[in-house]
């Protein structure tokens, strides 16, 4: 969670240093724009307690998520097996519907690109490229600087041999599968090679595949701030910090499908009064660059699962005086399978 928050903060910082604007359609306008973090929090609270039916009708994503959490806690108290089965079937049905929508996304993307290019010319691809550079740059910075620094704080060892091992054996596969869930068997095998305790990584790897979402947090923050820049919404530092916190929590709930993090952009945009029409156009832009963006995002997420699982266990060994059990690339005597 701490790593995901730092990733979101890195996305915010990069967006401030290298602001990106997008060329959108005629609907590129905002609703009532909050002037400071106080108004952002006020809007958040008002949207949270909106009638759940109205929230669904009006596309109030904050309200939908809030009532989903409330109902989730309530349903958890119900012990009836039939209720659990019904909720599980409903969850699978919604996931199937989401996959269907995403499968039809290329047709919408084709129309979006055609209308945008016909209105603004080929210069729109320059904006897309700049946005992609900011996204990928942030993700690589997290993978090669922030995450290794966290690992160093716990192990007090050079973390880069472990980082590069995880990127090579887990990240490359995740880059092409674009699914952290599909990469779980690869990560489990890598943990076994690294000599980790199966009782630990059999829990931490599946859990990390749904919660350790550094790349998703970066995508949500950068795309939301790009939408804010496009419609002329000024985001101050306290509001950006609050966006980082919200993005951290939202990333943990990102759908486990390709492009799942993009579907949370409207929720982040609603914090700044950006209309759903604008937010969904930004989501469309995300699908255009998603071939690269989502691949790098999944690579960061999946390789981080193994790296942090190994960091947690190796740091425990070091505290217990079991340095000899560490792999040779961390100064121990254990020979790790190549």
By CATH, the architecture is named: Orthogonal Bundle
Please write the string of helix (H) and strand (E) elements.
HHHHHHHHHHHHHHH
Question: How many domain units?
Answer: 1
**What structural class is derived from the secondary structure elements?**
mainly alpha
**% residues in beta strands:** under 5%
Largest sheet descriptor: none
Number of strands: 0
Annotated CATH homologous superfamily: Sodium:dicarboxylate symporter
CATH class: Mainly Alpha
**Rg calc:** 21 Å
> Could you state the oligomeric state of the chains shown?
single chain
Helix content: over 70%
Number of helices: 15
CATH topology: Proton glutamate symport protein
Coarse morphology: globular
Mean pLDDT across every amino acid position: 85
The residue ranges in which pLDDT falls below 50 over 5 or more consecutive positions are none
* Separation, N- and C-terminal Cα atoms: 30 Å
